[in-house]
Design a protein that fits this description.
The complex is a heterodimer. Chain A folds into two domains: 4-79, Beta-grasp domain (Ubiquitin-like (UB roll), Roll); 88-161, Orthogonal Bundle (DNA polymerase, domain 1). Chain A contains five helices and five strands. Chain A has helices at 25-32, 88-95, 105-118, 124-130, 142-161, and strands spanning 4-10, 13-19, 51-54, 57-60, 73-75. Chain A has a five-stranded mixed beta sheet with strand order 2-1-5-3-4, with helices on both faces. In chain A, α2 (88-95) crosses α5 (142-161). Chain B has three domains: 3-35 and 504-647, Aldehyde oxidase/xanthine dehydrogenase, molybdopterin binding domain (Aldehyde Oxidoreductase, domain 4, 2-Layer Sandwich); 38-140 and 216-264 and 271-304, Alpha-Beta Complex (Aldehyde Oxidoreductase, domain 3); 307-489 and 652-801, Aldehyde Oxidoreductase, domain 4 (2-Layer Sandwich). The longest helix of chain B has 28 residues, at 569-596. In chain B, the strands form ten sheets. Chain B has a seven-stranded mixed beta sheet with strand order 3-7-1-16-13-14-15, sandwiched between helices. In chain B, strands 11, 12, 17, 18, 19 and 20 form a six-stranded mixed beta sheet that branches. Classes of the chains: A alpha+beta, B alpha+beta. At the A-B interface, α1, α2, α3, α4 and α5 of A face α2 and α17 of B. The complex binds FE2/S2 (inorganic) cluster (2 copies).
């Protein structure tokens, strides 16, 4: 199958990749662009380990072809924070023990990030519903929910203070 | 030194040692997407392997034609049993004393079995080539029901050992029979059952399920032919054992093999075994001279690697009419699938199923387990459980409920009446275990009080009245469970895996500036070892946990250990860590005495330093001692400060817990709603309460999954019906409740720090609690027992069978 050039913006950087039309975004991100934060847990849209943001929407990167990301802006866990300045969600997941093996974590945080963008003041129910496309086998979600709620609270206080 | 001004309390707190809810050191990399899991490993020129798998559950392989696959550009090689046979790698030994085909040798025995291994330049080409391999099969009759395995017309599955009358675990009476394992006193138990005032009987089925960690299994093998060294990265819960097995199988000397478990995305027992994919990636790397990666997809994971449970447990329990239990009888039919690949210690073909007397003082008991071959995937792994303890706990906790019904007695009261009393520990069980410590009554009373048990029962009775009066369509279930676990395998004299004694290890180096590196024989899969082992050590050697690096999983650097499963890390490697720490302290004492110019006996340990007795202002901190050990010539003492300990535990540890689950069940839809879940765990000394709580939340959620819907199901042709996450239930955040956790603390008397292990308790105790709640909801309508998984359809069906739909 012939390869095509895909130009996209990943975490604020313009990049390009050569991929067949059938190649999934998750494989191009992980294998060509060396973005290994998003993981593969199923490749069938069930687990959410591969969650990234595409033009302001959460997408499961195993469920779209790389070619569909042509010209789009992609944000992955690598784009949310860095060692010098962690995203509040990254801090809160640590503080509230919102992760164990860490395999679901990049997808989970990326999803939670979008959720809070869309609903900065969620109830616990809204958080539980909003992240229900992301599976976790380790934590039982209780501390994930706590982490997301704590992040929302902190983001709101810093925002209203500034 | 300003430390003098600090109080003992402050110095203790600064260590972040035992009992501290220390934040995890692992989290920095995981939250930033910088974990290093096996699929993240990318080596130059790496190839990708993929399996051709059988679509039949039982068939003869007439021919395999790889021509078309080999012609596809990008395909490098295709391996079949024919290529593996000259290397003697077409079969491999299992951990249970059986052997297993690496690639189909003449026939296939389960759907999804590995038939050929395609090696290509990338995963897409490999997948294309898999489709191009032509396999001609001749279908054979399929055996899925273990109770039909020994009927006269049953197909013979394992023709390779059909004539073998003696298996790894004693006599075999039929080609489809693997072993019979007996414990306890059969005659005495049967006599008691024949004479008892009350006998309750039930068939308790713990269905087949799967650990299904978020990361599937995989490996990367890299054979460096120039130096003769093989490096193998993979999802291994026991990397050192994998190295030994790899050496024995491949003939490569063990020092030329390096096995690395990188970050592991959850294990839960799935990653203990040795799988054909690991073997094939090694062979493929040897054959091609390039690194080869194999990572299974989710369907392959669910259908081919490591199922769990599948125990049919027929029970009889005898008691007086007052409810004093006299005897327990159990016959289990264990469906092992096509190969016996259980990951149990060698001498325990049914694991520790003989812990099935549970938390109760049952004077006489008998257990027999029949292992049976069927046309299903091999496995029988300990899914978040210590070798069949989960099955045992489910069995006894269901039998108690069934007995309570027969006695017309409250199930909480029946339990309390039969608990092993505090003063009976160490307690010798009828089936051969010595329980180390426990205080079951205290835990039980605390739990019942916390949930307001009496009130709950009153509310439940009222609801039954209301239901009968047509005022509600909901019923309330109260699920009780008091479990006792047996973990921390184990004493080397009883427990081994492939001949390797189940000790574990820790090696410590203190650096000149007083920070430290400790390496262990275990491997974390999310349990937070890098955090908690540093805490154990901090308390032992007085160096802050923040200044201790923990390393595991690289066989070139870590000391040999048997790995992480069966909740053995804390009981065994945790003990090794404490013991190695004590060796450091012993040497430090000599150095301190020299520096302080006093006799060894004139100083004593205090948090982080040795202090001269009666002269608290004269002391040497561990940091000062560490520095001195490198820069001073101390007579009679070797330079440096290092220690190693290989720990062989004198006994297992016996964590326990009391759980209560309250559920509301909609009789018309079968939907169950968890109103409350209270979990009291006693895991002995608590190392990190935050992590314990996290383990309990996670284990309970896995228990919820198993009890309420998760199963590996086959149809009568041996087709797997639940091979994707569409059909295989994993609870989301939406159906998972918030849990209430609690604890009591009964230290293990034989463990150096009294810790017992906790990771598996919530799964062991959670499943009976959820299942008992469902069963209990229908008790007032004549239900004695209904099988798991209690999905909505089955619960609806139970209600329907009881005539509750009018
Ligand atoms: S890998 Fe994309 S949803 Fe599971
Ligand atoms: S932390 Fe392991 S899957 Fe979520």
């Amino acid at each position: 199958m012939s390869k095509q050039t895909i130009n996209l913006n990943v975490n604020g950087q313009s990049v390009s990749a050569e991929a067949e039309p059938r190649e999934l975004l998750i494989h191009v991100l992980r294998e060509q662009l060396k973005i290994t934060g998003p993981h593969i847990g199923c490749e069938t849209t069930h687990c959410g380990a591969c969650t990234v943001e595409m033009d302001g929407m959460s997408v499961k990167a195993c469920t779209i072809f790389a070619i569909q990301a042509q010209g789009k802006e992609i944000t992955t866990i690598e784009g949310l924070g860095n060692p010098d300045k962690l995203h509040v969600l990254q801090e809160k997941f640590r503080e509230h023990h919102g992760l164990q093996c860490g395999y679901c974590t990049p997808g989970m945080i990326t999803r939670a990030h979008r959720l809070l963008e869309e609903n900065p003041n969620p109830t616990e129910e809204e958080v539980r519903f909003g992240i229900s496309g992301n599976l976790c086998r380790c934590t039982g979600y209780q501390n994930i929910v706590k982490s997301v709620m704590a992040a929302a609270e902190e983001l709101n206080t810093t925002e209203s203070a500034s | 030194m300003s430390a003098t001004a600090e109080s003992v309390q402050d110095r203790k707190a600064a260590l972040k040692g035992l009992g501290t809810s220390r934040k995890r050191v692992e989290d920095a990399r995981f939250t930033q997407g910088k974990g290093n899991y096996v699929d993240d490993i990318k080596l130059p020129d790496m190839l990708f392997g993929d399996f051709v798998r059988s679509q039949y559950a039982h068939a003869r392989v007439k021919s395999i034609d790889t021509t078309a696959a080999m012609e596809l550009p990008g395909v490098v090689a295709v391996l079949t049993a024919k290529e593996l046979e000259p290397l003697n790698l077409h079969w491999m030994p299992t951990l249970a004393g059986d052997k297993q085909m690496v690639l189909a040798d003449g026939k296939v025995l389960f759907q999804g079995q590995e038939v050929a291994f395609v090696i290509a330049e990338d995963r897409y080409i490999a997948a294309d080539a898999v489709d191009l391999v032509k396999v001609e099969y001749e279908e054979l009759p399929v055996l899925v029901d273990p109770f039909k395995a020994e009927l006269p017309d049953a197909p013979v599955l394992r023709e390779d050992i059909a004539d073998q009358k003696e298996g790894a675990h004693g006599a075999r009476r039929h080609p489809n029979h693997i072993f019979t394992w007996e414990q306890g006193d059969k005659g005495a138990t049967e006599a008691i059952i024949n004479e008892a005032e009350v006998v309750a009987e039930e068939m308790v089925y713990y269905h087949r399920t799967h650990p299904c960690p978020m990361e599937t299994c995989g490996s990367v093998a890299s054979m460096d032919k120039v130096n003769g060294k093989l490096t193998l990265w993979g999802t291994f819960q026991a990397p050192h054992v994998v190295r030994t097995v790899a050496s024995l199988l491949s003939g490569i000397a063990e020092h030329n093999i390096r096995v690395v478990s990188p970050d592991i995305g959850g294990g839960f027992g799935n990653k203990v075994g040795v799988y054909p994919g690991y073997v094939c990636s090694i062979v493929a790397s040897i054959v091609t001279g390039k690194p080869v990666k194999w990572v299974e997809d989710r369907m392959e994971n669910l259908s081919a690697t490591a199922f769990a449970r599948d125990y049919w447990m027929k029970g009889k329990i005898a008691a007086t009419s007052e409810g004093k239990i006299l005897g327990l009888w159990c016959h289990t039919t264990a469906d092992h699938g096509a190969f016996d690949a259980c990951a149990d210690p060698t001498k325990y073909p049914a694991g520790f199923m003989n812990i099935c007397t549970g938390s109760y003082d049952i004077p006489t008991a008998y257990l027999a387990v029949d292992g049976i071959y069927t046309n299903k995937a091999p496995g029988g792994v300990a899914y978040r459980c210590s070798f069949r303890v989960t099955e045992a706990a489910y069995f006894i906790e269901r039998m108690i409920e069934v007995l309570a019904i027969k006695l017309n007695m409250d199930a909480a009261e029946l339990r309390a009446k039969n608990f092993i009393r505090k003063d009976q520990f160490p307690y010798q069980s009828a089936l051969g275990w010595e329980y180390d410590s426990g205080d079951y009554h205290t835990a039980w009373d605390k739990a019942l009080e916390a949930v307001g048990y009496k009130k709950l029962r009153e509310e439940q009775a009222q609801q039954v009245e209301d239901f009968k009066a047509g005022k509600t369509r909901k019923l309330m279930g109260i699920g009780l469970c008091h479990f006792t676990e047996i973990v921390g395998a184990g004493p080397v004299k009883n427990c081994d895996i492939l001949g390797m004694g189940m000790f574990d290890s820790c090696e410590i180096r203190i650096h000149p500036t007083g920070s430290a590196l400790a390496r262990l024989g275990t491997i974390s899969q999310g349990q937070g070892h890098a955090t908690t082992f540093a805490q154990i050590l901090a308390t032992e050697i007085g160096i802050s946990a923040d200044e201790i690096t923990i390393e595991e999983g690289d066989t070139d650097t870590a000391p040999y250990g048997l790995g992480t499963y069966g909740s053995r890390s804390t009981p065994v490697a945790g003990a090794a860590t404490a013991m190695a720490g004590r060796k450091i302290r012993a040497k430090a004492q000599m150095i301190a005495a020299y520096l302080l110019e006093v006799h060894d006996n004139d100083i004593e340990w205090e948090v982080d330093r040795f202090v001269v007795k009666g002269a608290p202002e004269r002391f040497k901190t561990m940091k000062e001692i560490a520095y001195a050990s490198y820069n001073q010539a101390i007579p009679g003492v070797e330079p440096g400060l290092e220690a190693v300990s290989y720990y062989d535990p004198p006994n297992m540890t016996y964590p326990f817990g009391a759980y209560v689950c309250v559920m509301d069940i909609d009789v018309d839809t079968g939907v169950s709603d968890i109103r409350q879940f209270y979990a009291l765990d006693d895991c002995g000394t608590r190392i990190n309460p935050m992590i314990i709580e996290g383990q309990v939340h996670g284990g309970l959620t896995e228990a919820l999954a198993i009890a309420l819907g998760q199963e590996i199901a086959y149809d009568e042709l041996g087709n797997i019906k639940t091979g994707t996450l569409m059909d295989f239930f994993i609870p989301t955040s939406w159906e998972t409740p918030n849990y209430q956790t609690d604890f009591t603390e009964t230290p293990s008397p034989h463990h150096p720090i009294g810790a017992k292990g906790v990771g598996e308790s919530p799964n062991v105790g959670g499943v009976p609690a959820f299942s008992n709640a469902i069963n209990d909801a229908f008790r007032a309508f004549g239900l004695t027992h209904t099988h798991m998984p209690h999905d909505h359809w089955r619960v609806w069906k139970t209600a329907n069978d009881l005539g509750l739909h009018g």
